[in-house]
Design brief:
The protein is an alpha+beta fold. It has eleven helices and twelve strands. Strands 1, 2, 3, 4, 5, 6, 7, 8, 9, 10, 11 and 12 form a twelve-stranded mixed beta sheet that branches.
Amino acid sequence: MYKRLSIVMFPFLLLALIGASVWGYLEHQEKNTILIKAENQYQRAFHDLSFHMDKLHTELGNTLAVNETSEPSYRKGLVNVWRLTSQAQSDITQLPLMLLPFNKTEDFLANMANFSYRMSVRDMTKQPLTEAEMKTLNTLYAHSADITKEIRGVQNKVIANNLRWMDVETALASENEMHDNAIIDGFKIVDKQVGGYEELNWGTGSLNVFSKNDVKMLTGNDMTADQVKKKAIDFLGVKDSSGIKVVENGGSAPEFQSYSVVIPSGDASKTDTQLDFTKKGGHLIYFMKSRDVPAAKFNLRQARDVANEFLDQHEYKDLSAISYDQYQNTATILFAKKENNVTIYPEQVTVKVALDTLEVTGLQATNYIYSQKKRNIGQPKITVDQARKQLSSKMKVTGESLAIIKNDLDEEVLCHEFIGTMNNNIYRVYVNADVGMEEKIETIRQDQAEAAKGKS
């Protein structure tokens, strides 16, 4: 019986064994294909990085070689520097360096890109490069030579020893750090070298994505954790203060000092309420009470009115709604300060309102808190009619007002703000009220346009 059963089962077992072997082989081939593809992508990104850094060094040298009064040549050179630096940043993001300390180099490249972009977009006939900016360019040229040399050294080792980036990824993911990996060691040397550079003068108009909050804009004295806890309790009207946690952030750096407050929901199905306050003055810069909003029983205008009243009850005064948005039955309303009928866009507050009960569930006020200052808002030198000439003749203007915005140089400028329609789209166009130059164009939705027209 067993013999007969064995004879019957043997072909099936053999087929199963063959099938498993074929499946295993195909899985192995597919895995190898994926690994080869990933390795090729890493190699391409790395060699592109080396190429772009080399070109960047050359372009900086070419820019410095032209005559200081040659505005078109400087502009072209700085645009190329910005483009190559941005490409080098993109190359770095494609390499498996997430677990490798390389932030100093990334910060350096980001600041270089921002510096060159700012210098290239400004009118050099009126604002030629200063002596300090020329010194910065010369320093960047020298530093780029050092970085290029180190990366070339790594590239030579990769080619000579046929090194694989997949080994780098494995080494970085491993808890046991590999100190003998040439690629990892090379990038560590680059980052250490960049970290040793003296702080560069990126200029007063430098667009720095790593710019710090200006604590000088804050009013009041430094708060203690207990004082901030009381402010959170008063803000939310909480009766039970047990379980409230207060964490101090920022260490010794004043620009990052703040307090985070967490208030337990008391319900496992609901998320905790979170608030952030500045240490100096105890100003609320963030509030979030996330919850499900099953249905929208109220409209955006009702939510705007509730949000407006909410801001008036707290320290956010003289604000007007400038845009609405709705997502998952929650309204997001953006407010900006208004002074003498001029909208101050740098001072912005975002409020979230649940459309089922009109409960305020969120607040983001960082820009408003850190941008408050006394401004001398002058009269526009360009009339509305003169500014309108900068618009397309096909645009139908539906609203106009004065506004202060930050331009590409991160400078506050007074502008004529126009809301108009063209090609079935709605646009917000800002024209410099002093020189008549177009500063910025934004595409907006219908509900945002209604908000902009209804600012009061």
